Amino acid sequence: MKNSLFILVLILLTSCSKNDEIIDYPTQNDEEIKAYIATNNLNAIKSNSGLYYVINEQGPGEQPIQTDRVKVAYKGYLTDGSIFDENATGYDTNLQDVIRGWTEGITYFNEGGSGILLIPAHLAYGSSDYSTIPGGSVLIFEIELIYVNYVTENDEEISAYIADNNLNAQKSSTGLYYVIDELGDGKQPTETDNVTVAYKGYFTNGSIFNESTADGASFNLEQLIKGWTEGITYFKEGGTGTLLIPAHLAYGNNGTFGIPAGSVVLFDINLLSVN
After folding, report:
1. What pLDDT digit, counting tens, does each position of 15-42 carry?
2. Number of structural domains in the chain
3. In this structure, are residues 94 and 67 in contact, taking their beta carbons and an 8 Å threshold?
4. Residue 270 in 3-state DSSP?
5. CB-based burial of residue 195 (10 Å sphere; 0-12 exposed, 13-18 middle, 19+ buried)?
6. Are residues 204 and 159 located together in one domain of the fold?
7. CB 3.0 to 4.6 Å from 85: which of 43, 76, 136, 161, for a disulfide?
8. Among 114, 148, 182, where does a domain finish?
9. What is the pLDDT of residues 155-209, one digit of tens each?
């Protein structure tokens, strides 16, 4: 009886091991990628993770890090050429929210750059099927990194708003735009001063998201968004004008209550006093 039970268990284990054979996808994928590179005469670089990438154009703009938000145009296909997804106009995403091959691979390009990512399964969807992608598949993406962190988009939006409203705006080295209607004749604040400012905050479509009373509100400039910390210092006490602030100097990639991620914010300001 004991021998029969042992034989039955042995048969079951042998059967499972045959049906559920463990596949060495990293090695298999690496060989598949190298064959694809050779067949297509690609100048590819391999990273420590096993990702391969081809830089066709490095790009002239900002280089993202793995926590950045990006906009990427892409075409995704398997090594046999079968396309499983594409977006020619661009896909907005945070690099922490995508497959690891993208999280790493997109950072090798600058804004405006283009190339190819050749991604093994352990950096993509692993050994399980995903939608139309079979488990263990190598994924290839032709990519164009359109924007990083809203900077270019925001600058285009602000420039268009300035042109449409015929504003005489100045741009600082940080990307902040400002319009001085009245410079003022009092004290000029530094970035560490306390100030009292009457203001109206709105988007480029005119929607108001915040507004002070005529008596204004008091702040320490070090405790505000960077667009205010910098922008208020261009005025003197009694001065009025407008700050046109890109997201990287305001509420960034995440936004805040009532202000969507990546928003340009405008403020009409009256610098009432410098304390």
Report:
1. 444 455 678 999 999 999 999 999 999 9
2. 2
3. yes
4. strand
5. buried
6. yes
7. 76
8. 148
9. 999 999 999 999 999 999 999 999 999 999 999 999 999 999 999 999 999 999 9
Are residues 125 and 27 part of one domain?
Answer: yes
Spacing of C-alpha 164 from chain mean position: 28
Closest by Cα among 145, 78, 80, 134 to 108? 145
Residue type, 59: G
Q: What ranges in 76-172 are assigned the alpha helix state H?
A: 100-105, 151-164
pTM summary value = 0.73
In the structure encoding, which two tokens stand for residue 206, read together? Answer: 């005119």
Q: How far apart are CA 232 and CA 12, in angstroms?
A: 76
Check whether residue 78 and residue 176 sit in a common domain: no
Indicate if 144 and 163 belong to the same structural domain.
no
Look at residue 10 and tell me if it is in a domain. no
Query: In 10 A of CB 222, how many CB atoms?
Result: 11
28 and 75 in a single domain? The answer is yes
